[in-house]
Specification:
The structure holds three protein chains of three kinds. By secondary structure, chain A is of the alpha/beta class. Chain A is 43% helix and 20% strand. In chain A, strands 1, 2, 3, 4, 5, 6, 7, 8, 9 and 10 form a ten-stranded mixed β-sheet that branches. Chain A is globular and about 75 Å long. Chain A starts with a helix and ends with a helix. Chain C is globular, with a radius of gyration of 20 Å. The termini of chain C are far apart. The chains are: A alpha/beta, B alpha/beta, C mainly alpha.
Chain lengths: 290, 240, 223
C-alpha cells in the first residue's frame, strides 16, 4: 500500500522542484537602519519599491531611535544607515564605521503648542527666542529626552538661547520617548514641543491640542534656518564586519541620491498634505537644479 | 526448611545521626503471615520500607530469597514486593485505572485480572468512579486491589485498617485471611491492634524504640510473652 | 496617516505571531518541563543555587533578555555568524529564554506539591524512574499546564525584546505586539485597539486549548 504513494508524490514533487529552479534568483536583502520618524512618515514605503524592483532586492527597514540606528550601524548589523543627526553622522564616518556621508534630503522642525500660545512664541523671530520665551513664562515644554536627532536639535537651540533646561524644574519634561508619543503627550497636557514637520503633519488629525506656533506652514515659510533638519545616508564599512552587503549598499546610495528618486522624494506628501514633507538635497540633484 | 523469603542481618537505619531501627536478625518465612507490632515511633514503618527496598540500611544487609540486595534494588526485584500503606494514595483516575496501574507498568494487559479483583473486593460498581471521590474504606479496598493485581511474592501492609470503619475493616481482614489460606504470598502486617494481631498472625515480631524485643510464634507470643513490654501489649495496655 | 498595516500584511503579522510564539512555547515546554521535573526530584550540590536562578529568571525583565540576545547575535557579537539577528529566529530565541524560567519554576513547584507518599507508593508498585516521573507529571498536570500557560502569557504580548532582536521589519519580523506599538506611535489608536483585540483573541484561544489539555492528557504510565 505504501509503495504506491511514492510515484504519486514523486511527480508533483519533481514539478515543484523544477518550478522552483526556474524562479529568478533569490533577491538579496539590504538592511537599512533608520529613525522612527523617517519610517513613520511613509516616505520609505512610497519610494523603496522602485529600488527593490530595479535591483532585485529586498530592503529590510529597521526603524529605531537615532542612537540605536547608529549603534546598529557601528555593530555592523545594518548595511546602510539613514539618519538626521549631522554631528553624529560625521563622527560615524570619522571613526571609521561608515564609508562616507551623502546628503539626501532635508525637512524642518517646528514648534507646536497649545493654540492660545500662553508664552507668546508666535511673536518671536527665531527658535532661540521662542524657547527663551517659553523658559521665561515657565510654560510646559515636552522634550524627547532620548538623544535623537530631534532632541539634539532641541538642545542646540537652548544652547543658542543661552539657557540650560533642567528636568528638575517642573515646566521642563524630559520624556525619553519617540516623536509620536511626545506629540501625543504635548497635545494631551497642553505643552510646547519641538517636532519634525513630517511627523506632526501626518498625525495632526489626532492632535487636537496642538497648533503650529513657530516655523510657518511649510518649509519654505520657516523663518529660522536653524530649524532645518538635513538627512544623511551612510554605507557601513564592510571591513569591520563579515556579511555586510557593501555593493548593494553602494547601489542603494547611488539610487537614493539619483535625480529620479530625489524628485520622487520632493513630491511625497503633496497630495495628502498640500506640501512636500521633504526637500531633495543630494549633490546630483543640486547639479541638475543649480 | 527453605530459605526465608526476606532476611535482615544487622540492618540499621539512621536519620540525622539518630538510629531509628536496629535489626540484628529477622527472617520472614515463605508464605507465613508475620505481624509486626509495637508502639508509635518504634520503627515499624521503617522496617517495612527496608523490606520493600524503598530505603537502604545505613549498615547491615538485606537478603531476598538468599541473595543479597544491593541499593538501588534492581527493578525486577522491586516488582516482587509491594506495600499497602495506611493512607491510600490513589491516582487521579478511575478506580479501574488505579487497580490496573501496576499491571500497565509491567506492560501487561490489565483487563481480566482487574475485573476479577474489583469483584473480589466488592468494587465492581465503582469501577468507573473517580478515585478522588471515594470514602476512606473504599479507597483502602482499591489500594488493596491494586496491590493484589501485581500478584506479589511478598505483600507488606502498614496499618491497613487503622483508619477504617468496622465494615471495611472486616472486609479487608477477610481478604487477608483469604490470602493466608491460599498460601500464595508472604504477608508482613504492621498493626498496633492486639486483637487484629491475634487474628492474623502466624508469627509476631515486636519492635520497641527501634529494636526487636520479642519474636515468637503466635501462640507463645500471646500466651507466654517473655518481655514485660510485650506482656503489657498482649494485655491490651498502651505501651509507651 | 494611513496605518502601516493593512490587508494581506495583517495576515502575515498574525501568522508570524503564531509561528514565533508557538515555536517558543513548544521549545520552552520541551526543555522546561523535564528540567522542572529534574529539579523537583533530584538532589545535588548546587541545586539550591540553580533553583534561586530559576526564580530570578521568572522575574527577568523581557527587554533585558532582548538586549542580551541582541548583543549575542550582533555581527560584532560572539554569535554574529549565525545571521539570526533581525529574523524571526532571533525573536523565537528571545521568547524561549523569557518563557523558560516560568515553565521550569512552576513545573518544579507543582511537582514538589504532589503527595510525597505517592512517590513511595509508585516505587513500591514497581515503577521505574521514567514511569514514576510520568505518573507524577500526570498527577501534577494541572500545575504543569499552568506553567505552560504562564510561559505563554509572558511572551505573547512581549514587545521590548521583540523590537530589539526582530527590528519590527515589515513583512519579515513584525508581529502583533510590535505592530501595536508602531500604530500607537503613529497615533493610529483605533487600529492599534483592533490589533490589541486580535492579540487578546489569539491569547484567549490558545488558553482555551491549553485548558482542555489539562483534562485530556492521556494517562499511560508504561512503555
Amino acid at each position: 500500500m505504501e509503495k504506491r504513494w511514492i510515484p504519486v508524490l514523486a511527480i508533483p514533487g519533481f514539478l515543484v522542484a523544477l518550478l522552483a529552479a526556474c524562479q529568478p534568483a533569490e533577491p538579496s536583502v539590504l538592511r537599512l537602519a533608520t529613525t522612527t520618524s523617517t519610517a513613520d512618515s511613509g516616505l520609505l514605503d512610497a519610494i523603496l519599491p522602485a529600488f527593490e524592483e530595479g535591483y532585485n532586492a529586498e530592503v529590510d527597514v529597521v526603524a529605531v531611535g537615532t542612537g540605536q540606528a547608529i549603534e546598529i550601524g557601528q555593530n555592523g548589523d545594518a548595511d546602510v544607515i539613514l539618519v538626521h543627526a549631522r554631528s553624529r553622522e560625521d563622527a560615524f564616518v570619522a571613526d571609521g564605521y561608515g564609508l562616507a556621508r551623502h546628503d539626501v534630503m532635508y525637512n524642518d522642525f517646528i514648534l507646536v503648542g497649545p493654540p492660545d500660545d500662553p508664552a507668546g512664541i508666535g511673536a518671536t523671530g527665531s527658535a532661540a527666542d521662542a524657547l527663551a520665551a517659553i523658559a521665561q513664562a515657565q510654560a510646559s515644554f515636552a522634550s524627547r529626552g532620548d538623544d535623537s536627532g530631534t532632541h539634539t536639535k532641541e538642545l542646540s537651540i537652548w544652547q543658542a538661547a543661552g539657557i540650560e533646561p533642567d528636568p528638575e524644574q517642573a515646566w521642563y519634561l524630559s520624556l525619553g520617548q519617540g516623536m509620536g508619543e511626545t506629540l501625543q503627550f504635548a497635545s494631551e497636557s497642553g505643552a510646547y514641543t519641538l517636532a519634525d514637520r513630517g511627523t506632526y503633519l501626518s498625525q495632526r488629525d489626532n492632535l487636537p491640542g496642538l497648533a503650529i506656533l513657530f516655523g510657518g506652514d511649510s518649509i519654505a515659510e520657516n523663518p529660522d534656518r536653524a530649524l532645518y533638519n538635513p538627512y544623511g545616508v551612510i554605507p557601513v564599512n564592510p571591513d569591520l564586519h563579515d556579511g555586510i552587503q557593501s555593493e548593494l549598499a553602494q547601489q542603494f546610495v547611488e539610487w537614493l541620491t539619483s535625480l529620479e528618486t530625489q524628485e520622487a522624494i520632493g513630491e511625497y506628501g503633496v497630495d495628502r498634505f498640500g506640501q512636500p514633507l521633504f526637500y531633495p538635497d543630494s549633490e546630483p540633484y543640486h547639479q541638475a537644479h543649480p | 526448611m527453605s530459605d526465608p523469603v526476606v532476611e535482615l542481618h544487622g540492618a540499621e537505619v539512621t536519620y540525622a545521626g539518630r538510629t531509628v531501627l536496629t535489626v540484628d536478625r529477622l527472617a520472614v518465612q515463605e508464605h507465613e503471615a508475620l505481624v509486626v507490632v509495637g508502639p508509635n515511633g518504634a520503627g515499624k514503618s521503617t522496617l517495612l520500607r527496608l523490606m520493600n527496598f524503598l530505603e537502604p540500611p545505613a549498615s547491615g544487609e538485606i537478603l531476598f530469597c538468599g541473595e543479597r540486595v544491593r541499593h538501588p534494588a534492581p527493578l525486577n526485584l522491586r516488582r516482587r514486593v509491594t506495600t499497602v500503606f495506611q493512607r491510600p494514595v490513589l491516582l487521579h483516575r478511575t478506580v479501574f485505572e488505579n487497580v490496573a496501574y501496576g499491571l500497565r507498568l509491567r506492560g501487561r494487559d490489565p483487563a481480566g485480572v482487574t475485573w476479577a479483583l474489583l469483584k473480589r473486593l466488592d468494587l465492581e460498581g465503582l469501577s468507573g468512579a473517580q478515585a478522588a471521590g471515594l470514602s476512606g474504606g473504599e479507597s483502602q479496598r482499591v489500594a488493596l486491589a491494586r496491590a493484589l493485581a501485581l500478584d506479589p511474592e511478598v505483600l507488606l501492609l502498614d496499618e491497613p485498617t487503622a483508619n477504617l470503619d468496622p465494615f471495611n475493616l472486616g472486609l479487608v481482614e477477610a481478604m487477608i485471611q483469604e490470602l493466608r489460606a491460599e498460601r500464595r504470598c508472604t504477608l508482613v502486617i504492621v498493626t498496633h491492634n492486639v486483637f487484629q494481631a491475634r487474628r492474623l498472625a502466624d508469627r509476631v515480631a515486636m519492635l520497641h524504640g527501634g529494636t526487636l524485643i520479642e519474636v515468637a510464634e503466635a501462640a507463645p507470643f500471646f500466651d507466654r510473652p517473655r518481655d514485660p513490654r510485650a506482656a503489657a501489649f498482649v494485655r491490651g495496655e498502651l505501651v509507651a | 496617516m494611513v496605518s502601516q498595516v493593512e490587508g494581506s500584511a495583517l495576515w502575515e503579522i498574525i501568522a508570524l505571531t503564531i509561528r514565533v510564539t508557538g515555536t517558543a512555547l513548544a521549545a520552552s515546554a520541551v526543555l522546561g518541563i523535564p528540567t522542572g521535573a529534574f529539579l523537583a526530584f533530584t538532589r545535588f550540590p548546587g541545586r539550591r543555587l540553580l533553583v534561586a536562578l530559576v526564580y530570578t529568571g521568572m522575574g527577568l525583565p523581557p527587554v533585558v533578555v532582548g538586549l542580551v540576545v541582541y548583543l549575542l547575535l550582533s555581527r560584532s557579537g560572539p554569535l554574529g555568524e549565525l545571521g539570526w539577528l533581525f529574523t524571526p529566529t532571533a525573536m523565537t530565541l528571545a521568547q524561549t529564554i523569557i518563557a523558560l524560567p516560568l515553565v521550569i519554576g512552576l513545573t518544579m513547584t507543582s511537582l514538589e506539591a504532589v503527595d510525597p507518599q505517592l512517590r513511595l507508593q509508585l516505587r513500591s508498585m514497581g515503577a521505574d524512574r521514567r514511569q514514576e516521573v510520568t505518573a507524577l507529571l500526570s498527577e501534577a498536570r494541572a500545575g504543569v499546564v499552568a506553567a505552560v500557560v504562564a510561559g505563554f502569557g509572558g511572551i505573547i504580548s512581549e514587545v521590548g525584546a521583540a523590537m530589539l532582536v526582530g527590528g519590527n521589519i515589515a513583512g519579515r519580523t513584525r508581529v502583533l505586539s510590535t505592530a501595536i506599538v508602531l500604530e500607537t506611535r503613529m497615533g493610529e489608536f483605533q487600529f492599534a485597539l483592533v490589533l490589541g483585540a486580535l492579540l487578546l483573541s489569539l491569547a484567549f484561544l490558545v488558553n482555551i486549548l491549553l485548558l482542555r489539555l489539562q483534562h485530556r492528557i492521556p494517562y499511560w504510565p508504561g512503555r
